[in-house]
Every structure is written in structure tokens, then in C-alpha cells.
Amino acid sequence: MDTPEKTQIAAPPVSAHEDSPVFNFIRSLSPIKPVKSAHIAQTFTSLPFTSLPSVFTSPHANFHKDPSFLRRHQSLDPSNPNRSSENHNIVCRNGDFTNGISQKREISDKKVSVEVHAEPCKEHSDFATEFPQNLRHIFYNPEGNLTGCSADAESAVETAGMSTPIIPVVVKSPEKPLPEGEGQQQNKEWPIDASDLFIFSSPNDAEAFRELIQRSPDFGTVCLSSLMSRFTPDDVTGFERLQQVDLLSREQQQIEEPPYPTEEAYEQKEMIKNLDFHNLDKFLDKYMSIQLDKNSHNDAGTSMPFDYAPVPNFHRGLRRRCLDFEIAELCKLSGDDSDYSHMALSQHDENTLVNEGQLPVKSEGDPLRCTLPGIGLHLNALATTSNDYQSVEHENLLSENQLMNTQISSSSLNLPNAHQSLHESLTSVVSEDIGSTDNGVLVVQDGSQSCAYPDGEELDHNSPQKKRRKAEHSEDGACKRCNCKKSKCLKLYCECFAAGVYCIEPCSCLDCLNKPIHENTVLATRKQIESRNPLAFAPKVIRASDSFPDTGDDSNKTPASARHKRGCNCKKSGCLKKYCECYQGGVGCSFNCRCEGCKNSFGRKDGSTLISVEAEVIEEGKENFEKSMGNQGSLEIMKQRDPIQATPSAYYRPSNQNTYSAKNEPPQSTSFVTTSSSSVLHASQNQGQLKHIALQPEFEKHYDNNNNNNKNNVGGKMPEVLRSNDTPNTVIKTTSPNGKRVSSPHSDFGSSPPLRSGRRLILKSIPSFPSLTQH
DNA sequence: GAGTTTGAAACT
DNA sequence: CAGTTTCAAACTC
Using 50, 70 and 90 to split pLDDT, how confident is the model at A264? Predict the structure, then answer.
């Protein structure tokens, strides 16, 4: 593997180190004295983290989800050569080194020896608080390229309650000597220039990095922690000295710990933790914007300079009350970390899509990504533990998340094409905040239930509905609050339970058993329910937006590409009220739905919701057609073909499935197909976003054939959608573990056999939900 | 806040 | 699998 970084790794001349700000900074510190190492676990136990809900001590809760880790992990995906070659930053977090290593090994044909060495940390709790979070271990990939590996011991500490040893890992290639200078640096006496410990895309990056350190001693201090990993296990002396350096530097600077004196410090550390040095320029921009913002806003928690809403320091250590069963269970199921990594990648990606789309998006397109469906629907992962719950903090948190969502939404809307680089550089930051809380528990995976306004944020500000939703949003935000009376909050009736979270104080439930104190009961009940329906705790709304290629327009990453996993069964609400789960989820109804009189504004199940342009075009076509055919027969023909199109007003009329007469036949003519392709393309009428793909396979073919001529194709993304949607759907019906119907074939308009068969095909082409089993 | 409506979940 | 019951959220007043 030929890596461009190779040349960049070459260490700068020693003189450059000595002249660097970091070197000077370190040299200015107090003399280094050896300190006796202490196991990291001891230090963590002394950390002032609040006690965690007992659920996190459950056997399910030991796996940590960290999107940024996953993000980095993704770069190792052999199936993605671009990423793997572009980014050699391997950020291993949560101690999952072996996983990263194993994947790394897959990339290369060369043998890679793995050295795992449990390196004791230090006694100083202050340092121990921070160090693990920023600890970056060094990987040498088979080419000898230096890569960083950050062990996010923090989450380990917070989740497991303690004691996950920090394990620096050094991966060396025995067949290839380390690049000149690298090996020397390992034995080189500390300190050295921090900037040469990382891979920079350009000399400017390195210089900028030095400048950054120079500007902010705190930043430099944090970097020192990262640099500690520079040492191999053999270099214990240097390691300890480095620890001492860091400690002394803190003392000298009178940096207040633990654990995070300010949000700024936390921001910086988080940024560094997620720092991708290949995108240093972006990082610097962000960092500087924070610095600038700090100057103008003392309250960094309420004004974020970019799509990054760090968890305020007062929330650190607070464990969310999520029931973190799913991933752990899946891990147990699979028994394979890499499997989990795939799943987690999927989660991360959908969180990533939060950044790129308006709403959290459920990955679906890639079968590998949808192998684990119900993973982590933890809507109120944002909620704090009841013990630590403080209304003010909670409000702050909610407001921050709302702000974050707003920012994300706006940015994604305004920057439809800003992805790849942004994706690379920011997703780890953004997604971590969106997709996980401190403890790594995923959040708002089913964002539709927690974040999405069904109306797509186009509500009248004065409307009661808006007020209500606003109140809801501000009241519970991502936090479900149930009002159960009889279910003891142990049934899916309970929103908290269904969302995979414990009930908390704001809940008004009676005889609630959905509390950490009843963890065993909760888990047992959950297991029982899952035995009936493995997807019971899966997100109700399955997003398929990541089926869009990364290069796709962000506008495609909308709830429109999502579907309710089961579909609704509305009879009276017309799918226009929150009784309807589709509507509630902000998604259109699909063929999975058995609703009657569907008027879902996000897309009717008959696919009749059209963007105005499409409607006009179709209307035009219809008029022309009527002119040519004569008014008498044309309408009848249209009715036979598509009752929705038959009447001009019907485009937005509730679909009446009964209008599909038994005479209805699957569209066959090319002209019809072309028209119907438009008709079934749902786009958000106001957002101009692709809303709904409900094409029959025949449509797909025709669409592909006629795509170039289809001017109504929203964003021109249809082919990708169709193609990408094609794969996962092959598993829709077959992978329900208990054979239970998950995508409803109930048809209330499928009275005609042709339509039935057609719909079956449609189901294959529309990813409704991921499969539990891998394929 | 009480009562009603609604549809999902649970049950048979 | 279909029909019924239970349940709690959504909604209305």
C-alpha cells in the first residue's frame, strides 16, 4: 500500500523540534522527576463521576458506542479504499484496540505484529481524568506510517464504572522497518516537537498546529497527553516523564481539574480527542472559532461556533438513563467485535447524517449497515439520571441539543454539497454529540420521535399545533416521559420503555418498574418482548438515507427516505395526526401501511404526494392527454391507470385505496411508467427534498432508462436511490427472526392480484427496516 | 385538567 | 392470522 503520508512522517530535523513552541514550552516546565506509576483504575475510582444507573452495570452495557471511534474505524473499512488510504489516523477508543488492529490487518497483506501493553497511568487524579481522554496511541501500520490511536478511557470509566486499563498499543510491521526517524523517536528523549508526532497533510498544517499550541497552553497541555502515547511500552521512563511533564505543566498553569473546569476545556479536549490531523486546517478553524467565540460569549454552552454542541461540563459524568441493551446483546449474539463495529458504524453513519441531513437518519442502504436494526433506540439518552437531574441543567442540555439540531439542520440545508471534507473532519465531533452522550449511548437514533417535527419545521409559529409541539419539544425534548398507569412501564405502551430508557422523575407513571432498581425485571421483560418481536425495540422509523452516496446531495438525506418499520394502521386520523406513527415520525406512509384515507403530508402510501412541479407537469400532461384523447375517455383511462392522477385535485387528496379497482393493473406502458415515476417520487413540498421512493421494480428499470429525460427527478438522485435501496430489501421479509411479519403486507387496496404481486416487488425495492441477521 | 379519540400493543 | 381487549398518547373542550 502506497501511502502518501509516508513521506510526511519523516521526522523534521531535531533542530526544528528544539525551536518549536512546544519544545520551549516543555522546556520551561519544572524539572522532571520520576513518578511511580499507578494503575489507571485506581485513579478512575477517585473520579468525581456520579454514580451510574445500575443499568449500565448490566451485562449489556459494557460495550461502548463511540461514533468517532467508529468513524475512524470506518476508514479502515477495506471496502472503502479511498478512506483507508486517505486517512491513516486510526483512532481506537473505548479500548477496542484489537478490533482496530484486526481490521487494520485485514487491509494489508503484510503481517502485523501487535503489541499490547497495559501501561499504568499515574496517580494524579487530575491528570488521570484528562489523560485517558486524550491519550493517543501510536499505530505503525505495515508501511510504518504513524497513526494515532486514542483510547477513550473516559467512556470506559464512565460506563463500566471504572477500571479499564489504558492500553497503549503499538503495531509494528516486522517486515518493514520503521521510517527513519520514527524508530529513533521512540527512543528519543522527551520532549520533542508535538507537531512531528502527528501526520500533517502539509507543512502548513504542522506550522498551524505549532501555532495553535503556542496560542493556547491548555491546548498544548492536552496535546502533551496525546503525545504520551508516543512512547512504546519499552519507553517507560519516557512515558513516566511525560506524565510528569503533563502534571507539572498543569500545576504550573494552575489548571483546575477535575474533571473539566470549563466547557472550553472540555471543548478543546473533545476536539483533540476527535482530532483528525489530516484535516488540521479545519480543526484549527473550529478551534479558533471557539477561541473567538469565547471572547464574545463567555457562555460557551449556549453559543456554539459550529455544529458542535459539547456536553456541558456539568453533564459530564452523568450517565444517561438509557437501557443499553441492544448493542450489548447484539455483541453477545455476534460475539464478534467487528460485527459490532459494522453495526456501530451504521449507527454512526446515521448520526453522521444528522449532520448532513435535517434529521437523524437511519442507515439502511448498506446491508452491512442494517444488519442490526433495533440498535440503540434510546430516545432520551439525553436525559440525565434521576439522581442528578436538575431542571436547570436539563433545560440547558435540551436547549443545547435543540440548538445543535437547528444548527445542523440549517447548515446542512445551506451547504448541500459540503460533505466529504466536512464529513471527514467534523462528523466525529458532531456525531459524537448527537449520536452519543458521554457514555456513548446513542441518542436520537429514532430522531423522528424526538427531533422531527412532523411538519418539517414549517409550522405556523402561532398555531396551537406549533405551540404544542414546541412545548413538547422543550419539555421532554429527546426525553420521553410516560404517563403509564397500568402497564408498570414494562410494556411497549410505555414510551420510555419502548424507547429503551428508564423512567425518570418527570414521568407520571404509576407503579413504575422501569427503573434502574428493577433492572433485572426490565431486562427480563424486554427480553421477553424481544423474543416475541425482535424488532420491538427497533427504531420505528427506519431511515434509508445513507443509501445515498456520500457524494449525494444533502437534501436527499431527509426523513423522506425513511419509512416506518411496520407502517401505520390508521383508520380515522388520515395519517395527519400524531396518532399515526408515520406522521409522528415525520415520514410518509408507505406500502407497508394499512392506513385508510391516508393524507400523510409526508407522503401518502399511494405515493401521490408530489412536489408542486411534478404535479404541474403531470397536470399538464394530463390536460394534453385529455385534449388529444378527448375529454370523455381520457379521464376514465387515467382513472384506470392511476386514480390519484385521474383528478387534478387528487394529487393532494387522501388516497382512496378502494379506488384501485380490480381492473387496476400494474403499470406497463413506458409512458405511464415515466409519468408514474414522477408521481411516485415524493418530495417535500417545501424543502424540495426527495421524500419518498416507492417505485416498483418496473419503474426502476424505466427510470434508469429514462432518467436522463426525466427533468422532474429531484436532485437527479433517483438512480442511486433505487440502486442502493435494492440490496437491503432482499432481506426484508426473510430476516424477521421469528418469521413475524414486520413489513406489513396487509393490503387494504391490494384487492387485485396484480397489485398484490406488484407490491411484493415493491417491498423488495424499498428498504423498510434492517434485518437482524447478517447477510 | 377531564374526558374523548385513536391506534399500537397485547391478548385470545 | 384475525379479532378483541388493553393501554396510553394524542387530542379536544
Answer: low
Nucleic strand C near CB of residue A581 (< 7 Å): no
Element (H, E) at A141: none
Residue nearest to nucleotide C9 (CA to C1'): A579
Beta-sheet strands, E only, within A503-544: 541-543
Q: Which band of pLDDT confidence, cut at 50, 70 and 90, is reported for residue A206?
A: low
Count of residues in chain A? 775
CA–CA separation, A447 and A232 (whole Å): 43
Asked if A240 CB < 7 A from strand C, the reply is: no
Contact between the CB of A495 and strand C at under 7 Å: yes
A326 CB neighbour count, 10 Å cutoff: 26
In a domain, A91, yes or no: yes
Say yes or no to pLDDT of A508 above 50: yes
pLDDT band of A147, cuts 50, 70, 90: very low
Taking the stretch 458-487 of protein chain A, residues with Cβ within 7 Å of any atom in nucleic acid chain C are 468, 472, 482-487
Q: How far apart are CA A268 and CA A597, in angstroms?
A: 53
| Total count of domains within chain A | 3
Q: Which three cell numbers stand for residue A654?
A: 387522501
Give the 3-state secondary structure of A172-237. ECCCCCCCCCHHHHHHCCCCCCHHHHCCCCCHHHHHHHHHHHHHCHHHHHHHHHHHHCCCCCCCHH
Residue A252's domain comprises 5-48+60-258+271-278
Count Cα neighbours of A769 within 13 Å in the Cβ-side half-sphere. 31
In a domain, A653, yes or no: yes
Segment A455-500, tens digit of pLDDT: 333 333 334 444 344 344 434 444 567 889 889 899 999 988 888 8
- A513: Cβ contacts below 8 Å, ≥ 6 apart: A488, A489, A490, A521, A522, A525
Judge whether residue A572 contacts strand C, using its CB and a 7 Å cut-off. no
Q: Where are the beta strands (DSSP E) in A198-284?
A: none
Helix (H) or strand (E) holding A681: strand A681-683
Residue A424 within any structural domain of the chain: yes
Whether residues A235 and A346 share a domain: the answer is: no
**What is the distance in angstroms measured between the alpha-carbon CA of A576 and the sugar C1' of B8?**
16
The whole-number Å distance from A494's CA to C8's C1' is 7
Closest nucleotide to A580, Cα to C1': B7
Task: Considering all nucleic acid strands, name the nucleotide whose C1' atom is nearest to the C-alpha of residue A564.
Answer: B8
Check residue A565 and report its DSSP letter.
S
- Name the nearest CA neighbour of A138 among A20, A28, A242: A242
Within a domain: A310: no
A29 and A165 in a single domain? The answer is: yes
HSE of A146, CA atoms in CB hemisphere, 13 A: 30
- Mean pLDDT score of chain A: 46
Cell of A43: 485513579
Same domain assignment for residues A606 and A712:
yes
Place of cell 522497518: A177
A746 touches strand C (CB under 7 A): yes
